[in-house]
Amino acid sequence: MSNILKKKLFIASTIVAVILLGIAAFADLAISNGMINYNSIFGTVFQTFGEFPVYFIFVLSGEIAVVYAVRRKEDKLLAIPLFAGGLALSAWQVKQYLNEASSYSIAALTNIHNGKDMGLANSDTNTGGLSLQVALILWIVVYLCVTALVVFWMKNKSDQEIKKYLLLSIFASLTVWFSLEINGALKDFWGRVRPYELSASQNDFTSWLHPNGVNGHKSFPSGHTMAGTLCIVFSWFAVGAVRKRLWLFGVVYGGLMGLSRVIIGAHFLSDVVFSYFLTALFIYIVRSLYDHIIEDDLKLH
C-alpha cells in the first residue's frame, strides 16, 4: 500500500470515526434499545467464538519461534529456550481460547435450558467450563492440528524467510499485547455500565464522554471488537493478493464483531466504534514501525 493511499485511508477513517462517535454521543441508548436481541444467533456466535485473533496471533508467533529454533538447532543456547518458550506460548494460548469459547458456549446452553435468552452471558468473568478430561482432549487435538498446518506452511520457507516471519511475529505479538493493555486500562477508567446491566429505568446510563472511574463495569471500549479488528494482523504473514484479501477480511470481520456486540446487548455503538478505530490505529503504528525499522534494514542487506 502506497504512502498516498495510506494517508487517504487514514483521513477517511478519522472522519468516519468522528462522525459515528458524534452520533453515538446523542443516540447511544436509543440505538441499543432499538437493536438489542439477546436471542440473536449472529451475536451469540461472535460472542462465543469471535475473539480467536487475540489468541491465535500469539499461537502463530509461538509456532514460528519453534520453527526458527529448530532451524538454528546448532546454537543450543538460543534454540533450546526459544523452542521451549514458543511451545509454551502457543500451547497456552490455544488453551486460553478454548477456555473462553467453552465458557461462553456453556453459558449460552445453560440459558437455553433455563428458558432464558441465549446471548445473556457475563462478558467480564468466566461462568464455567468443560470437564478436565474433555478440555484436555480438545486442547491436544486443536493444538496438534494448528501445529500441523503451521509446519506444512513453513516447511519450504528459506532461513531468511523464517527470520522475517519471526520478526513479524514479535511485532504482531506486541500489537496484541499493547491493544489488550490499553483496552483493559480504558475499561477500568471509564467504568461504563453495559446495556444488559442497565436498570429498568436506565437512569444509570452514561455517555461515552463521561468516564466514571473504577467501579467494576467495563463496557467502554469493547474488548471483543478489539479482538475482531486484530484479525487484520494475520495479513502481515501473507504476500500479494492473499495479503490484500486477508487485510480486507480483517477489516470486515472487525466491523461485524462490533455490530454483533451491539445486537447482543454487550456494548453501545460508541464502545465498538472507539475500540475498532483505536485498535486499527495501533495496528497501523506498529506495522509502520516494522516497515521503517526492520523491512528497510532487510533491504539494505
Automatic annotation (TrEMBL):
Pfam families: PAP2. Residues 166-287 form the Phosphatidic acid phosphatase type 2/haloperoxidase domain. Keywords: Membrane, Transmembrane, Transmembrane helix. Coiled coil: none annotated. The chain crosses the membrane at residues 9-32, 52-70, 77-94, 130-153, 165-186, 220-239, 246-266, 272-290. This is Membrane-associated phospholipid phosphatase. It comes from Liquorilactobacillus sucicola DSM 21376 = JCM 15457. The lineage of its organism: Bacteria, Bacillati, Bacillota, Bacilli, Lactobacillales.
